[in-house]
Write a structure and sequence with these properties.
The chain is α+β, with helices and mostly antiparallel strands. The protein folds into three domains: 193 residues, Beta-Lactamase; 100 residues, Helix Hairpins, CATH 1.10.287; 162 residues, Histidine kinase-like ATPase, C-terminal domain (Heat Shock Protein 90, 2-Layer Sandwich), CATH 3.30.565. It is 48% helix and 17% strand. The strands form four sheets. Strands 4-3-7-6-5 form a five-stranded antiparallel beta sheet, sandwiched between helices. A five-stranded mixed beta sheet has the order 9-11-12-14-13. β3 and β4 form a beta hairpin.
């Protein structure tokens, strides 16, 4: 949109409430949501990424498997130590018929196994159980009272996370299915196949699941090693331990992860809401202000100034503000234009009305002829005004709608000048073209409208120049600019009117010219076209060495951005 010089600028006004308008629902109403979808779009990826990470940690059970492997390795080492002690110290009988002594074996097992809270069972080669550490440890135990510590407020938080963990536990992977562990009297070779492996001189082990109904309680880890005298197997030691400590460690680790995840989730949600708020709230303010501009009813809507943000939203607010101001300037220009049009049309209409009223009262044929001539002149003047006004009103729409082309200004000027010279009367002014004919000067624009500007400037120069005058048309490239100048030998521009001549309906014609031959829109339209092409147009007087005005000079500058 082109702002006309000399028109009133935007009037400051305080923002007011959005006026109620008709015409159905407002598009802005759909944007007033209780919760911003932009906030959801920012929050969802952050929470989803955190959820995938936490879920992966919960579902990847290498930590638990590593603890089980370490526990089995520890049981094997402990079993080998105890089996070595039994093979050295718990044998009785003849050298070639030595066998395990139950009493000595029980003493060694009690001393070596009790501190480790591991269950040890010693079996003879026949499969009969010789000793069981559980029976040995249970003998002589006394009931002890232990007072619980006072309740800690943090236990409530931990209890909450335990409930969450218990709720999530059924959805976690169970891992491999282990055979059930059974606790009954008389368990032997058939119940523990690893004993057969140990009695054969090798180390065996197994993992079983201890169940309570359908619920898996725990895992029981067993390791069987042979008890040997030299190379002869005299028994098998079976060590077993549950995975309570492992499960507790895994549970504590997962609870720690759950607590850290809850903290991270809270921070993520808060930061996402904050981030979304810094985006969605300003955008919502801008959308609301734009909707107020759309439903404008005589009061200027103020676009929020967010330029201090120094980001894309700040740039958007600046652009919306400039667009709104341009819109209001256009509305003001339309209002002034309508007033000017009404004023200019009223002049010939008033003249017509006066001529009609006079012609009805006169009987003088000569006076009637003069009045008819006045009426015909006024009709032609109105026709010319309406044509120029229609042309001026279409320029903005045409410039916005038409596709720009590459225009060769050198060829355009040469063509227009040739047309002027072919139509020139013998007594008309001489034309001179100053440019390099071998250098093409190209710009992006509409050739018809640029040609209209040059034709207007040449026509204006011709109308003011004397019959023996001289009109010079020059085109030059100045670094990143292109300069087009039209100079004449006319009376020049009245001092102080260098900008006023570009106003609409400005009329300052040469002496002797019939009034109403021009609408006063030519230079205004020319400036409108040039500014729409990103250029400027200025007018000035040409002065001679003595300081006298020698004519007018119109200068058009186009910015090319090339150097």
């Amino acid at each position: 949109m082109v702002r006309q010089l000399g028109q009133p600028g935007p009037r400051p006004a305080a923002p007011g409430p959005t006026p109620s308008g008709g015409g159905g629902g407002s598009p802005g109403d759909g944007r007033r949501r209780r919760f911003s979808t932009l906030t959801l779009r920012i929050l969802a990826p952050n929470v989803l990424a955190l959820g995938v990470l936490v879920g992966g940690i919960f579902y990847l059970d290498q930590y638990r498997d590593g603890l089980l492997d370490a526990k089995i390795a520890s049981l094997q080492s402990q079993a080998e130590v105890i089996a070595g002690a039994l093979g050295e110290s718990a044998l009785t009988g003849a050298e070639d018929q030595r066998h395990l002594d139950g009493k000595i074996s029980a003493g060694i097992i009690r001393r070596l196994v009790v501190p480790t809270l591991t269950r040890a069972r010693l079996y003879l080669p026949s499969g009969a159980m010789l000793a069981d550490s559980r029976a040995l440890v249970a003998a002589g135990r006394q009931v002890q009272l232990r007072y619980l510590p006072p309740a800690d407020p943090s236990d409530r938080i931990l209890g909450f996370f335990n409930q969450v963990y218990d709720w999530l536990l059924p959805s976690l992977p169970r891992g491999p299915v282990f055979p059930p562990y059974q606790e009954r009297l008389g368990l032997g070779l058939l119940d523990y196949p690893e004993l057969s492996v140990a009695l054969a001189g090798e180390v065996g082990g197994a993992i079983r699941a201890s169940r309570r109904g359908k619920e898996v309680e725990n895992l029981v880890l067993t390791v069987a090693v042979p008890v040997q005298q030299l190379r002869r197997v005299v028994g098998a030691l079976l060590l077993s331990a549950d995975s309570a400590e492992i499960e507790e460690g895994v549970r504590n680790a997962r609870l720690a992860i759950l607590q850290a995840s809850a903290l991270a989730l809270s921070v993520t949600v808060l930061m996402s809401i904050f981030l979304a708020g810094t985006i969605s709230r300003p955008v919502a303010r801008l959308a609301k202000a734009a909707d107020q501009v759309r439903r404008w009813r005589g009061r200027r809507a103020q676009i929020p100034d967010l330029s201090r943000r120094h980001d894309e939203i700040g740039d958007l607010s600046v652009t919306l503000h400039e667009m709104t101001e341009a819109l209001y300037e256009r509305l003001d220009a339309i209002e002034v234009f309508a007033a000017d049009v009404a004023h200019e049309i009223k002049n010939p209409l008033t003249s017509l009305r006066s001529a009609l009223e006079t012609i009805e009262r006169t009987e003088d044929p000569d006076q009637k002829a003069d009045l008819m001539a006045v009426m015909a002149h006024d009709v032609r003047r109105m026709d010319r005004l309406i044509s120029d006004i229609s042309n001026a009103s279409r320029i903005d729409a045409e410039l916005a709608r038409e596709e720009l082309e590459t225009v060769d200004l050198s060829a355009l000027l040469q063509t227009l000048l040739n047309m002027r010279q072919s139509n020139r009367h013998s007594a008309g002014p001489e034309f001179e073209l100053d440019m390099d004919p071998d250098t093409a000067i190209l710009i992006e624009g509409l050739p018809s409208r640029l040609g209209q500007v040059v034709d207007n400037l040449l026509g204006n120069a011709v109308s003011f120049s004397p019959p023996d005058g001289h009109i010079k048309l020059s085109l030059k490239r100045l670094d990143d600019r292109i300069q087009l100048m039209v100079e004449d030998d006319g009376p020049g521009i009245p001092p102080g009117q260098e900008e006023a001549i570009f106003q609409r309906f400005y009329s300052q014609r040469p002496e002797g010219e019939t009034f109403g031959q021009h609408s006063g829109l030519g230079l205004s339209i020319s400036r409108q076209i040039i500014e729409a092409h990103g250029g400027t147009i200025q007018a000035a007087n040409r002065f001679g060495p003595d300081g006298a005005i020698q004519g007018a000079r119109f200068s058009v500058i186009f910015q090319t951005g090339e150097r």
